[in-house]
Amino acid sequence: MRGSAVQRRLNRRLRGWQAVHRWSSLVCTAFLLLICLTGLPLVFHEEIDHLLDPGPTYVVLPPTAPRADLDHLTAVARQIYPGRIVTSVFRDDDEPQVIVALAPSWAAVRADPKSGRFVRFDARTGQVLERSKPPAEQRQTFIDVMLRLHIDLFVGLPGELFMATMALLFVTAIVSGVVLYGPFASKLDFGAVRTARTQRVRWLDLHNLLGVVTLAWALVVGATGAMNELSTPLFALWQRTDVATMVAPWQGKAAPAQGELSSVQAAFDTAQSALPGMTVISAIYPGGQLGSPHHYLLFTKGKTPLTARLFSPVLVDARTGKLTAVVRMPWYLRALEISRPLHFGDYGGLPLKIIWALLDLVTIMVLGSGLYLWFAKRRRVPSGIRAESDVDIEAVKLLEAAE
Amino acid sequence: MKPRPSRFAHQWGWPIGLAILTVFGLLSALLGEGGVWWWLSWAALGVPLLVIARHALFPVRQEGPRHARHRAS
Fold first, then answer.
1. Helices (H) and strands (E) in chain B, counts
2. Chain-chain contact of B60 with A189 (C-beta, under 8 angstroms)
3. Which of A52, A242, A387, B1 is most buried, by the most CB atoms less than 10 A from its CB?
4. What is the ipTM metric for this complex?
């Protein structure tokens, strides 16, 4: 008697997990398929971009060649695009290039990102390598389209939050799938695929095999995917807390106009001496969404594979050129930074990317087989009796199928 | 005689082992500085794929439950 009561309770709990697994997967499957399919080319975006546009070839100079003065480069960029302000300077540490971004104003580029322009320079000779195409010739590349479908379905922040929810549902589906795997695996040897039984049993076995083998990878990529989708609100939070506290003393003072700014080259140098072990890679000009109307916001990064992902921001007074602060990165932005490589798989050379793509393909098969199993079960159970006996059938289905 | 693995090991041995390998593979390329750590990462992350290939492409004939039990069909 007692034994069967325990069994009943276990069955009830199992039914609960089955419902969680079924509904969390059903809701997110279509979007997850889209994410997996678009993720496939995105894993290789560097290679594809390079193939479609090999980019400028650099003159060969010794590594010790002096670098062009950034004040000179920004002045040239403003001559090329008169009437615009510089919004940021990016000094690549990968290739010898500097990219200067310009816009009619901060408000204009926020309202219409297409109003932005850029000039790409050789970081050593200062030669102009490329400038942004006129608006009429600007086209979205294949990778751009894949990226937007992957990240926000072309609708910005609401799309990002929606996809974050889908990623969390995916994580829920994985966790509930693991719970259901337990009773399944108690009846069969690991990896058993019963090929002689019905199509549905074979696909159930494959679904369980592929799912449980790629479990840790799928959990990591799902959770870090959700984290990446939260980057906009997390940076906004940081801006409103830590950054706001640091720039509070400047509140109410008149913001410097572009012509009154201190030297950007000096700001790079100041940040470099504040953090000698780091590489300064970019400066956001005063007035952007991040930072302050009174400061250059510079980003520096470390030199090892891990610390190269961890940015330390520095605020430099854009009127006096003095160091204001090395800004503390809160734990949630550190977590976000660690989430990026673990989601993209771009940190271990081409072989890691290929492994990423194969695991992505396996995930597509898990999603597809899950969907098939759901359809196949619905076909097996006539709809008339499904309504009342759904629970009983559900409770034993999985165990029964494992026998 | 070989001792029979416990029920828990039978259910979870492979999944836990593969999960540990996966986490090791993910971290070794991130925390290690290139070279041998990349190779270890590729090897560790390659194992789950090999396990899949082994079982999906060459399934072991296993028609019934592990513990012999008759099925009325």
1. 2, 0
2. yes
3. A242
4. 0.85
φ/ψ of residue A280, rounded to 5: -80, 125
Q: What is the mean pLDDT of residues A311-333?
A: 94
Cross-chain residue pair B15–A213, CB shorter than 8 Å = yes
Structure token digits, residue A155: 């609708």
Helix segments in B32-64, DSSP class H: 36-57
Map tokens 């000779």 to a residue.
A125
Q: Which of B13, B30, B69 sits opposite A347 (nearest CB)?
A: B30
Mind listing the pLDDT tens digit for each residue in A53-86? 877 789 899 988 999 999 999 999 999 999 999 9
Tell me the sheet residues that pair with A316. Answer: A296, A323
Q: What share of chain B is helix, strand, coil (3-state, %, to 5)?
A: 65, 0, 35
pLDDT in tens, A79-122: 999 999 999 999 998 889 999 999 999 999 888 888 899 999 99
pTM for the structure as a whole: 0.87
A13 vs A395: CA distance, rounded Å:
9
Which residues lie below 8 Å from residue A13, measured CB to CB, with a gap of 6+? none
Q: CA–CA separation, A218 vs B26, rounded Å?
A: 12
Convert the pLDDT of each residue in A258-300 to its tens digit: 999 999 999 999 999 999 999 999 999 999 988 999 999 999 9
Measured in angstroms, the CA of B73 and the nearest CA of chain A are apart by 12
B31 with A342: Cβ contact below 8 A: no
**Cross-chain Cβ contact B14/A190 below 8 Å:** yes
Considering only alpha carbons, which residue of chain A is nearest residue B36?
A348
